[in-house]
Amino acid sequence: MQINVMIPYILVFTAVLPALFAARLARQQERSMLVSSVFSFALGFTLLGGWIYLGIMNFKQPVKVVN
């Protein structure tokens, strides 16, 4: 199998999936869904950056709203 056929599947696994999970987690933690998903998507092109960012986001405390 040629590598050109595999590139879209690799990008979906390394960039799109972490961005979707980051948006979901950001909604749960009351963070900006747009910023976290775009940042995770951009880091996803490094092959592991999106997943690492998602892991770091899991360990951070949710944002506390101050009135």
Question: What does this 3D model show about the protein?
Answer:
By secondary structure, the chain is mainly α. It is built from 3 helices and no strands. Helix 1 packs parallel to helix 3. It is elongated, with a radius of gyration of 14 Å.
Would you spell out the secondary-structure blueprint of this structure?
Blueprint: H1 3-28, H2 33-44, H3 49-59
Helix pairs in contact: 1-2, 1-3, 2-3
List key phrases describing it:
67 residues; 73% helix
What can be said about the biggest beta sheet? none
Distance between the termini: 57 Å
Query: Whole-number average pLDDT?
Result: 87
Report the C-alpha radius of gyration, rounded.
14 Å
Q: What's the SSE pattern?
A: HHH
* CA-based shape: elongated
Quickly give the structural class: mainly alpha
What amount of the residues lies in strands? under 5%
- Multimerization status: single chain
Approximately how much helix is present in the residues?
over 70%
Annotation, overall tally of beta strands: 0
Unreliable stretches = none
Number of helices: 3
Summarize the structure.
By secondary structure, this protein is an all-alpha fold. 73% of the residues lie in helices and 0% in strands.
